[in-house]
Amino acid sequence: MRILTSLGVIAAAVTTLSSASSITITTTTAKSPSPAFGADGSFNPCRAISMDDQVALDECYMQLALDHVMIHNPSFPFGALIVDHTTNEISCYGANSNRKNKLLHGETTAFWNCTELYPSPTHDDLNDPGLNWSHQTLYTTGEPCPACASQSIYRGVGRVVWGSSIPDINRSGRQQLMIDMDDVIISAHMGGYQIDHRVPDVVGGVLQDKCDHAFWCAFSIYRDDAYYQSMLARDLGDYIEDHKRRFPCVTVPFVIH
Fold it and tell me: Span of the secretion signal (predicted)?
């Protein structure tokens, strides 16, 4: 198992992964260019995957989201990626930016980046956004917290795909609001208590082991005596031992083989 499988390729090819438009590679010798390269030279390894193979696409894009955050914020590996699932093109990236602003979760950063890259042509993002958000899939290494889940609904994305669950992130040692995304979606209502059907489809547990590994190692500093006492009181000692065995940690940033 390897978290940064495409990191070497991406790191060599780009100077920044802050937006899809920045991912460029110039090639002049290839007679039969890879499908991963767009006509403009942009690089997207997931282009080579058939759009009929949704499982493979979800795993590929989740890997890119994880690679991105392991470059930009490995100590808080909440990475996000927004993809137009009707064209198989990357719209933008995001990574947890809590050192700049504690509220900038990975998903929030991705939404902000997309809005900056694709502004409303009429300066009215509420009614005339620059992207067709119903065509967008949000990939995020961690299940969205209630705030980010709400943003996904308000932003109007068509799909949300996440890696590690909120309970697993919490069991890794980090504070979490223990409300899963499905509960947030159920709470969405239009005026007059009408059920809001304009909510995203949700797929969870994509590349779960890789995402769990990243969170388990990144959040080891939060596993103090109080953490162990609380976990043992809930009969979760086996969970701890299992993760120690399956997810060995080295100094972050790290590569898992």
Answer: 1-20
The pTM for the full model equals 0.83
Instruction: Read off the pLDDT band of 42 (50, 70, 90).
Output: confident
Compute the C-alpha angle 46/24/115, nearest 5°: 80
- Distance (Å, whole) CA 136 – CA 89: 10
- Taking the C-alpha atoms of residue 5 and residue 184, their distance in angstroms, rounded to an integer, is 33
Question: Smallest Cα–Cα separation from 62: which of 143, 175, 117?
Answer: 143
pLDDT, tens digit, 9 for 90 and up, residues 173-200: 999 999 999 999 999 999 999 999 999 9
Contact, 99 vs 158, CB < 8 A? no
Peptide bond preceding 253: is omega within 30 degrees of 0, i.e. cis?
Answer: yes
Give me the pLDDT at residue 250, please. Answer: 78
Work out the angle between the directed axes of helices 208-218 and 237-246 (0-180°, nearest 10).
100
Instruction: Tabulate helix, strand, coil % of the chain (nearest 5).
Output: 40, 15, 45
HEC letters along 29-84: CCCCCCCCECCCCEECHHHHCCCCCHHHHHHHHHHHHHHHHHHHCCCCCCEEEEEE
Q: Angle 221-218-161 (CA atoms, 0-180°, nearest 5)?
A: 140
Contact between 127 and 121 (Cβ < 8 Å):
no
Q: What tokens appear for 151 in the block? A: 């943003």
Q: Which residues pair with 202 in a beta bridge?
A: 160
3-state secondary structure of 94: strand
| Token couple for 160 | 């949300």
